[in-house]
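Re: export button greyed out
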Amino acid sequence: MHSYDYALLLAFFAIVLLPAPWLGRFYYKVMEGQRTWLSPILGPVERGCYRLAGVRAEQEHNWKQYTLALLAFNLAGFLLLFAVLLLQGYLPLNPQQLPGQDWSLALNTAVSFVTNTNWQAYSGEASVSYLSQMLGLTVQNFVSAATGLAVLVALCRGIARRSASTLGNFWVDMTRATLYGLLPLCLVLALLLVWQGVPQTFADYAHALTLQGTDQTIPLGPAASQIAIKQLGTNGGGFFGVNSAHPFENPTAWSNLFEVASIILIPVALVFTFGHYVKDLRQSRAILACMLSLFLIGGATALWSEHQPNPALDSAQVQQSAPMEGKESRFGTTGSVLWTVTTTAASNGSVNAMHDSLNPLTGMVAMANMMVGEVIFGGVGAGLYGMLLFVLIAVFLAGLMIGRTPEYLGKKLQAREVQLLVASLLVMPVGVLILGAIAASLPGPAGAVSNPGAHGFSQLLYAYTSATANNGSAFAGFGANTVFHNVMIALAMFIGRFGYILPVLALAGSLAAKHSAPLGQNSFPTHGPLFTSLLLVTILLVGGLTFLPTLALGPIAEHLSLGF
Amino acid sequence: MTTYLRPALSLALLMTLVTGALYPLAVTGIAQLAFPEQANGSLVHDEQGRVRGSRLIAQESNGDGWFHARPSAAAYATVASGASNLAPSNPALAERVTADAAGLFRADQGPVPQTLLTTSGSGLDPHLPPEAVAYQTPRVAAARQIPVERLQALLEEATLHPLIGPPVVNVLALNQALERMAPVAK
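Workaround output, generated via the alternate export path:
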């Protein structure tokens, strides 16, 4: 570790933590329709959208109506994107004359972007036109993040409201999240990125004569605008095939800092938004402390692991240091590891180094971050609603231990709530273990792995974990673009998204309907170090332990066999 | 059903208009005015005005008289970019590194810096750490028949020290400076 490594870590935590209380309050005001400094500009746009769409903003939905609206909107988005990808060959703004995608790839890509996963079984510069990038992928980058934010505020309202039947209006929540919550930040980040060297043009690919006299094609496009939302919306789908390792997607150490901090900027702020909803910021601090602890445990492990030289190269005439295979010079080890940990803790999934080539235990931290269900900051909205499920499970377990009815912020947790919690706990195991096991046991699909031994198993495990957790990063040597994996991974992404959203909205409806008991002397406090520790243990035991055997077969076996 | 259908479809289209068309157009407009060079790919031209590459995209250079960029798993292909995705435990990685190291090794310089033996994430890494450039100076100096000290001065001048990242040298800029200083004999 050099002085610039410490400077990077310091700058990263300053950017994500310092503005969070202010930004969290801003999100609360925006989602509750209060006036902010953006209202004079965006207010008319917002009201225009409602008028054209026939939405009555003051009319609230109960949880079933809210769910149906969400599903209808996501279905419409899916169909539009699917059609654009299939038909891009006939559509304008396609200077490279790229053909439409094959049906299974288009299906996989459409599900991937609608579910905020952004798994990519294709390479952007070689198979997606400018039009598809903008009208198709960029749009879903925005609205899938906005959908996550909408579900989160519905759950916040469910916890905060008393004897209520409604959770808010989905159309309004989604529109406000997009216009106020994402657009302004994206505009700022996109321009910062262009300044650092990210292209933003509609011109054709450029052609150069290299210094040694060969021809070189230089891919261009409206990249900065898409990369900004891909980072801020925890989407992660790269404009270029190698994502933020590409020097056009992430040109300097500074662009690297801006992009990696953008991944968790909004998820951290939303923890404070929750505190404003329940009028108790101590709850936010307890949750944030838990998320930060998990982030630091994973981060420290990964940093240590990735600074170890690869024993397999001991006999070569090479200056042994932290491995650089699959990494870019301008980021170095720390800049790459910080990204790996952040992108898997949040369900972003963009990469600036190739995860396939990471040391085994670094790759294991990436997988473990996803396996606990993307609750360490997690996706925009999705991370915190996942974390609140764990909070309720921790409260339930505490209730069992002290022998009284569990209650959270005055709301009693009863049979129906616990059933819904357990249903949500099944999502990760079903997607990773069942779908993954099917893929691993069929000779054709299992042949998609490109590395021998334990690491080959890790590649497949990573793919199904990433899809179910809606992360989207990959051990990219895995040959995922086959009909089998396109369809199965699409299924995993679908289960991983809606398998959470449906129980969360049902839970929100059920909690909203309850009256609130005043907190008494004997209530179990859900703030402070004791609860934070209980929450941490719950996440590791309930969320993580299920997957320990698979990690032993993959990264741990590889680590031991390499002789570190 | 129509209570959901109309808002779903019209909001999907309106959001497409705002975030898929107006937003990228606005960014393009501002970017082309404020940062035209970067927005168009940081292209590098020569005296005749020909495009010779992009400051941010590595070029294949294999002659003895040039500084070589990091190895590329995709042979410096730009469409599509690619990486080796070799696991640390994959024997193919150790074999490749050992073979390449044997080829580059110079007894007077010691073991080969790792960045000259490992492929980058993008296959288009435009930079090298200063020590990886320094390792190549004796070869380049011999091929261009100039003293090594002049190359070392050039290297020091070209090294960037970002506050929050490792020191790097842009290989294309370095090779251009080299060509201005001592053109390779044609």
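Residues 45 and 51 of chain B are 4 Å apart (CA to CA). The button fix ships in the next patch.
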